[in-house]
Amino acid sequence: MRYKEMVELVISPSLTVNSDCLDKL
User: Fold this and answer.
1) What is the dihedral of CA 13, 17, 20, 24, to 10 degrees?
2) String of DSSP letters for 1-25
3) Cα(5)–Cα(9) distance, integer angstroms
4) Separation of alpha carbons 20 and 2, rounded Å
5) What is the pLDDT of residues 1-25, one digit of tens each?
6) pTM given for the model
7) Phi, psi of 2 (to 5 degrees)
8) At the top level of its lineage, which domain of life is listed (predicted)?
9) Which of 12, 14, 17, 18 shows the shortest CA–CA distance to 4?
10) Which residues have CB under 8 Å from 10's CB, separation 6+?
11) Of 22, 1, 25, which Cα lies nearest the Cα of 10?
């Protein structure tokens, strides 16, 4: 797996979680 793909896999879920948290604020 390429580095960029790994980074996207890690960043995407955290972005989703962050936006979920922001929606609840």
Assistant:
1) 180
2) --HHHHHHHHHHHHHHHHHHHHHH-
3) 6
4) 28
5) 688 988 888 888 887 877 787 787 7
6) 0.41
7) -80, 155
8) Eukaryota
9) 12
10) none
11) 1
The residue written with tokens 């996207």 in the block is: 8
Residue length of the chain: 25
Residue written as token pair 């922001």: 22
For residue 20 the two structure tokens come to 């979920």
The type of residue at 13 is: P
Q: Read off the amino acid at residue 1.
A: M
* Tokens read off for 9: 């896999």
Distance of alpha carbon 1 from alpha carbon 8, whole angstroms: 11
